[in-house]
Amino acid sequence: MTFTDKLKNYDTLVFSAIAFFAIYLFCSYNGVGISPDSIMYTSAARNFVAHGNLHTFNHAPIVDFPVFYPTYLGIVSFITRLDPTVFGWWLDALMYAALIYCSGYIMSRFVPTSRIYKWLVLAAIILNPGLLQVYTYLWSETLFILEVLLFMIVFKQYLLNHAGKWLIFAALIAAIACITRYAAITIVGTGGLILLLDRTLPIRKKIGHILIFGFISISLLVGNLWFNALHTGTVTGPREPSITPFIKNLYYFGTVFCEWLGFTPNMYFLATTLAIVILIGFIAALAFNFYRRKLNSYENLAITFALVYGSFIVLSSTFSRYERINPRLLSPMYIPALWGYTSWGLLFLKRLRNPKLRTAVAVVFIGLMLGYITKIFMIDHLRYKDQIADEYGNPGYTDNDWKESKFARYLKTMDKSIFKSNVVIYSDAHEAVYFFSGLSSYLVPHKFFPKDVEKFFKTKRFYLIWFKNLEHSEIINLTDIQSRIKLKTIKDFGDEGGIYEYDGQNQNVQN
């Protein structure tokens, strides 16, 4: 092995160490960030270790999310004998370091390749505010994004010789990814699309490989969804129709890229146009590679995944309601999109015959990349100052607002015997109730489901733990409840919320 070959690995290891340190810095004040999703994963992981099942804190199987990430946390917890909230930061740091190593490995095999290009892009990946946010929380994207790159590495091996073992290996990675994030169906779509477009495969072999890949890659997902339907009556939990039209979702998609490019909000008028240009650009690049019969490169794999994933998020947001398109939701797309829109420059430079012109173009590219890296570094620095230097912490249930909350402190230390064991507890933030008190509770119903609302009001007796600062517009609020029934106040925390009881004997406010 030559010194140059060794350097391909050593420089990537240096960047991986920097990535690990970056996550350590952003988790140095209050540990890993904890969001409502994090609590769902954590409670399922705890039950996996304690009882061998994947039930959440409300004693129901985890359905809104696939089963692998909480299983993964549970396995690590069983081995280390630590809680996910304790080991979460270093697990995220290790996965971020692994992500950077995989990225460096892939870029070392671009055609053509460039060490300076790799260094600049690795820096842009490490410093991306969206990825840094994802990898400082207990979120399944941390594992899914790594699975995307592992799939690319293995599927590339398959494309080199069309060996069945590599196809099966790639399909197995896709299968695991599909039970990590439901959106991983885009990995299946990516592999299937490239197999379909691959003109080097004889038609009979192509059909066989598509069937093998498709069957294996969706097998675990089908099993997960079947289990959900069997035990809960829904395949992915209750889902509401979208309230955002296609054009609005395109705009939100574009605003994320505006943010990644360092644009200020007053430039978001470019968002829709930018989204259209980005997606059409990927389509054009894929068509060009199909025409050139160059579908087996890492660059093309990145372009195809970015196109499939981006289209899936925009379209699914148009038909199903979930969180608005944001950097977290599009984070799996960042690295492939970055490669797709920068790697062509290497080929362009190679084709330039004039050395002076080639040098000038390279200097311009390096200058643009350094400017971009500086821009996102300043965004990260501002986040570090706000959250770590000023001692606020990663926003979530472990930040200073919650640490200083009288309500949260009370829930941690209260005498739980005030709640009778046979009486159900409701809340507008049931995950917060569990995180602070360890009690199981149920979310008050969504306004969109009137039958659930009426069922709630027919409950003869219940407790209500209400966080005023977490009220959500899509669920019935405290005013709605008090307009129908009379609540007895058990504990009042003013603007923070309170604990209430309905005993079924209080006079109805509304008949």
UniProtKB/TrEMBL annotation:
It comes from the Bacteria. The chain crosses the membrane at residues 12-32, 87-107, 166-197, 209-227, 267-288, 300-319, 331-349, 361-379. Keywords: Membrane, Transmembrane, Transmembrane helix. This is Glycosyltransferase RgtA/B/C/D-like domain-containing protein. It comes from Mucilaginibacter achroorhodeus.
